Amino acid sequence: MKPSIQKEKHPISTKKLSENLFYYGILAIPLIQFVLFYVAVNFNSVLLSFQSFDYQTGSFIYAGWKNFSMVGQDFAHNSTINYCFYNSAIIYISGLIITTPLSILFSYWLTVHKGFFAEFFKVMLFLPTIIPGIVLVMMFKYSVEGALPTILEDWFHVRLRLGLLFDTKSAIWMIALFGILTGFGTNMVLYTGAMSRVDRSLVEAAEMDGGGEWAIIWHIVLPAIYPTFTTMMVLSVAGYFTSQASLFSFYGGSASSQVYTWGYYLFVKVVGGDGSMADYPYAATYGLLFTLVAAPITLLLKYLMERFGPSSEEKEHLKHVSLKSNF
Amino acid sequence: MKRLYGTLLGSVACSLLLSACGGGGNTPTSQTSNAQQSESIATDKTQLYVGNYYGGLGDTWLRELKTQYEALHNDVQIVIDNDKANYLPDNLITKIGSLRQNLFFVDNAYYYDLASQNKLADITDVVTAKLTQYNETRSIEDKLNTQLVNFFKNNDVTNGKYYALPTYLSQYGWVYDVDLFESKKLFIADTSTDSRLVWTDGKDGSAAKSKGQDGVSGTQDDGLPSTWSDFTALISRMKQMSITPFIWTGKYIDYTSRLLRSYWAAYEGADNFQLNYTFSGSETLNGDTSATAITDKNAYELQRQKGKKAALQLAKEVFSDSYNYAASSVMTINDHIGAQKEYIYSNPTPKAQPIAMIAEGDWWENEARDNGAFDTMVSKFGSSWAYGTRRFAFMPVPSMDGFPNTGAVLSTSSTGCFFVNANCDAAHLALAKDFLQFCHTDSALATFTVDTGVNKPFDYTLSEDQLSKLTYFSKSCYQLYRQKTTHLVYDLNVSKTRINNSAYFLSYWNWTSNVGGQVYDNPFQAFANDTSLSIDSYFDGMYTYQKGNWSRFSL
To answer: Which residues of B touch A137 (CB under 8 A)?
Structure first.
């Protein structure tokens, strides 16, 4: 008779236990934070969308679809909302078509070229990310409303009647410019990191086959960093609805409606001397509606970029490609 | 080595987490006066902690009251916690329950929010009790006007109880440089006629000043423009003499919005202007021949108030010529401190063009002094340019055809509050109420005004000796508020629609206009950006905007 096979139970060693404790202990902190400050907060925000503040009881009470009706009325009649759509689009598109391509190009240049100047530019381009935003805003304001008008008047005899940030025709473009000038840092950290993993032998092979810089960027670098690029594009979708574009730093609570973005519009609804708790449900309703819009767009964008981006076969093929240069 | 790195990394991560948990509201994180930094806690006394919003009013007045009160109560120590950030409305409403301060004096608060959530102590007993222990025959309530009593007590939220008291009174207006007006002869002489204005410095030996709007000589409006044509003539004269008429802060453009509201209130009259906050009453509006009954459902009709249209004239006039205002006023780099300094330095700094008037509130002199503006002038030009020596005053609102100055003066500081924290234990509650009562005796109210130059919205008077301690500007404000022709009106939400949508009404009610799809929030900014924009277009646009949005309230 065969002896029954019994699994031997090995007692957990002290070392294994302490490792597990450390591992789960460290993981618990961000998890708890996530649950408290993301899940709970957003769950409460969803509930708030269906409530209104009752001054008699000092509490939030069920209000049905009242807030949604108010938002609907605003979309239909409130002209200020039009500026939110328009200006948020300007900020988003300027980031998409200017900041992102330039970040990729700068990152490529910094990855390819080494030496003092490369390191210097790396630091300079990343500096806005670590300098406090309010300081950057002050520097920018004094440049465009102090230095620039003086230069224009003294050198070119052109007198600006209004400050570029005061003039509602130019203000949003100045805000977009500020976003571009200060938006390179984070992008570049990610893109240079991704580009550093590009196989150098591919680049050398391309150079030997007569491939120029643009061909290398288009056929080798971009496909290689495509996952990072996709992540950045997908994450930026939510930015359309949430970006304040530093308007509060520029204007405090008194920016003109003509420069409003969605993020700023909702921010001043609940922050500062103008708002009260009665305005929280209204702002929460926007948050919920934006989520319902942004979530499918984000998922769709992710799907499309993965669907029509470089395939895994193509990426494999890159290892064996031989380029004929047209440059 | 890896274990060492792991330990270090974990320590750094944990310390970051702990630092994020810090920063409670009990320790002042912003400006503190020197006196506060050196005060130690007396272990043999009961401490009463007072949270003071350390802004333009400072804390000198509070320290004096502290000294007086402690002299009367040897077993009490009042600890003043100056702060700014922690006493802002958003921080206060979330933190007040856990703060150590028993009493607060803040610049702005969500009164109804705090009261409805039981975060404030009921102070009705001390507000309605006669102040006999201080040899007074009146209660604090007796010193308030009806509008304030209704806002702080008689409403659907507080249901006949007081939970706070107003802190100070302030209007917005053009503050003019009296010394400049004298030196450059910018006062209107009494020998002027309708067709020809004569200018004077009003000094002995010169032509006497005109009687002004009130028609009485020897009052503070002597020599100042009574009518709109006088006002525009004054602006022209200033420019001819290379004086810049106006300056304001380009960064906080809402200063001009509030200035315009003062004009609107003056032209509309106190009763009609208050309709904007009560949404209850009737008025004959622009274009109508009979009165329109105003309710919450049709309150957007108030956008057709005639006084509002008249007030737009000011903004249009200012931007009729780019030489009417300082270049920095249309730049966002110039905040209110910068504007004050530029204004103060402009006279008599060589090569600087003097600036005649600044758009400001009652506290501006204190603020400018605390930011060193006057000290800089003294170091350069001598003591005659010091704070308290230089003379400033509010320019009265000139009458227009069909729009006399009704004497209505709008106070825009009504959301400032003085209240007791509901988290006090019984002993501290009694003490806090007692100190609050003390702070509203006639003597204490006078102390506040003498120290800050700002008035409180209570009925009290200063002695001649106390008046002599006020600056020229402060004295002019004090006298203005007590003139028989002055009717104070406060920007306090009474209508439920306003209370439940305060962000909307504070941002969009006053001046937002939809002109052909273009939305303007501020007439100054609108006329600056589009010099071809007409008053009629802007005025009609305000009605269009509000009428179009009114359905959002589902009334």
So the answer is: none
